[in-house]
Amino acid sequence: xxxxxxxxxxxxxxxxxxxxxxxxxxxxxxxxxxxxxxxxxxxxxxxxxxxxxxxxxxxxxxxxxxxxxxxxxxxxxxxxxxxxxxxxxxxxxxxxxxxxxxxxxxxxxxxxxxxxxxxxxxxxxxxxxxxxxxxxxxxxxxxxxxxxxxxxxxxxxxxxxxxxxxxxxxxxxxxxxxxxxxxxxxxxxxxxxxxxxxxxxxxxxxxxxxxxxxxxxxxxxxxxxxxxxxxxxxxxxxxxxxxxxxxxxxxxxxxxxxxxx
Length: 261
Description:
The chain is mainly α.
């Protein structure tokens, strides 16, 4: 387990530093809120999230995969498929599950109250990718663990999926400029920053679109894809319309936000 955590942490920090450096060198948008305050708050929320998951779930999804494998439970532990096929199929299923879960958090009022903590950030950059309310993270992990047990997802697939998902989330939240032609090719397969930025618009019609975190196929397949924001990437407003102020940069306010009217 320590080796798995070391790999995930190394990839996480590597991607984070790469995206942060890219943002400095080629930013897409000018930030409107205080960067130090936002970063301190977003990082603090991420640390609380990690502690919450570790406290409640221990080894979390990886532990569930190990348990399912040892007990021989779950669909893929009963099928005799090549290892590579199991990993590939499970990766795609998990990615779809994350897409569907994300869509549901926008449609169910109680879940939206939690998910708003992510959307209320007035800027979108690499730290927005780690800004989720601890209760939402705990619920998401519980769903993931249930899925891992029921499918019998191989440990390798869980580790691969979580590493890729974390890296993809930091990439597509990053405030980076990518040449339009390159972006057009990339988004045929993966969610790009320009594609996901639409999802953080203050306009309901736009933030109820582009739910993907990794593979871009789901939004195209289910009709929730919007290519570009109506006001353009420079003209669009990020966040939620009723909180275009400095409140989201404060940790206490952000953690208490779901419980306010």
